């Protein structure tokens, strides 16, 4: 652009061509396309290095400026005497600021270039953060009275419980008891009620959904459901590789009732059983677990992500979208920065706010 401006300024007015008379280029030569692709690859390779050098210089300048601000101003010192206490206090203050600032810079670096695995790890951090918020809320049984702070209030003695009648119950007494008792389900099927003041509507619905699904699975398995609000660890999936020794495996695939011994070939331990090979589990952490470990080391928490405006979207969905339109080559990685996701958050909030304002007005 600078060369075009310089050429246009040096050209005499009589030789200048108006913009509406300038012929448009509908096609580009193969040489120009190859040149642009080569330049874009060079810029793409040099941009991370340039950004890292720029950030390093800015951080060094910030340290230098803070250290200079801590120095005693002219005329405030002790003259020729050495201010040992003041130097120690300034050094401690600088070291504390430096540790806090480098921790903040480390979190920014961790969110500067996010892969699909790191986005999945961020999703786990946000879900666990919601679970921790739910655990902070006291769980109160349904129908139990609470005070203003959401704490359970022990019920006082009921007037009817203090007066007991002798003899068989009459129809009037049975009718009174049926009308006074609330129409609740069995005690084992009651879902804990969470005070609305201490928990958001979304977190409360998730808690109710989690407990209801947990009860359904327990009823199907013939077990007692745990109504604790915290998340439970997922159990191990049933595997039928090798010789079936448990009733959880598909025994009907090995032997049909009334058909005598199985016609499948005999196999030894560790070989194929019922046409399904035994899979060997890879040792070590998965890629998502490694990304989660690095994020935890950097100090990335659910609170920090929400303050950084990264708690609105489902990060795993963004990771799948990145993989859908990624390059077929494995050497080319697809990443997204936390600033881009934060910008998307602002755009969505502004758009929804504008729609609501126009709807109301």
From TrEMBL:
Biased composition regions of type Polar residues, renumbered to the chain: 171-182
Bias-annotated ranges (Basic and acidic residues): 73-87
Lineage top rank: taxon: Eukaryota
Region (Disordered): 68-87, 144-187, 233-287
Keywords: DNA-binding, Homeobox
GO molecular function, one term: DNA binding
Protein name per the record: Homeodomain protein
Organism in which the protein naturally occurs: Auriscalpium orientale
């Amino acid at each position: 652009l600078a060369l075009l401006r310089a050429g246009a300024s040096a050209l005499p007015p009589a030789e200048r061509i108006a913009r509406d008379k300038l012929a448009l280029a509908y096609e580009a030569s193969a040489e120009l396309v190859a040149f642009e692709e080569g330049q874009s690859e060079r810029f793409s390779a040099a941009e991370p290095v340039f950004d890292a050098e720029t950030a390093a210089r800015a951080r060094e300048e910030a340290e230098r400026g803070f250290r200079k601000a801590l120095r005693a101003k002219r005329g405030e010192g002790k003259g020729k005497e050495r201010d040992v206490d003041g130097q120690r206090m300034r050094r401690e203050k600088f070291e504390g600021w430096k540790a806090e600032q480098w921790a903040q810079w480390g979190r920014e670096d961790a969110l500067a270039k996010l892969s699909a695995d790191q986005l999945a790890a961020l999703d786990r951090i946000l879900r666990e953060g919601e679970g921790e918020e739910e655990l902070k809320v006291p769980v109160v049984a349904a129908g139990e009275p609470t005070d203003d702070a959401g704490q359970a209030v022990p019920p006082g003695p009921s007037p009817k419980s203090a007066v007991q009648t002798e003899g068989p119950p009459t129809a009037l007494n049975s009718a009174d008891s049926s009308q006074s008792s609330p129409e609740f389900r069995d005690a084992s099927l009651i879902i804990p009620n969470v005070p609305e003041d201490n928990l958001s509507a979304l977190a409360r619905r998730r808690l109710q959904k989690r407990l209801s699904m947990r009860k359904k699975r327990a009823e199907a398995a013939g077990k007692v459901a745990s109504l604790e609000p915290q998340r439970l660890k997922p159990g191990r999936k049933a595997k039928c590789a090798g010789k079936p020794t448990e009733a959880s495996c598909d025994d009907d695939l090995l032997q049909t009732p009334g058909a005598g011994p199985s016609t499948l070939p005999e196999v030894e331990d560790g070989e194929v059983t019922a046409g399904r090979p035994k899979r060997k589990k890879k040792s070590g952490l998965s890629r998502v677990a490694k990304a989660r470990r690095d994020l935890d080391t950097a100090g990335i928490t659910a609170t920090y992500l929400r303050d950084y405006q990264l708690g609105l979207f489902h990060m795993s969905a963004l990771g799948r979208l990145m993989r859908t339109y990624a390059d077929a080559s494995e050497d080319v990685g697809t990443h997204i920065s936390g600033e881009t996701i934060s910008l998307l958050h602002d755009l969505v909030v502004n758009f929804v706010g504008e729609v609501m304002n126009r709807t109301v007005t």
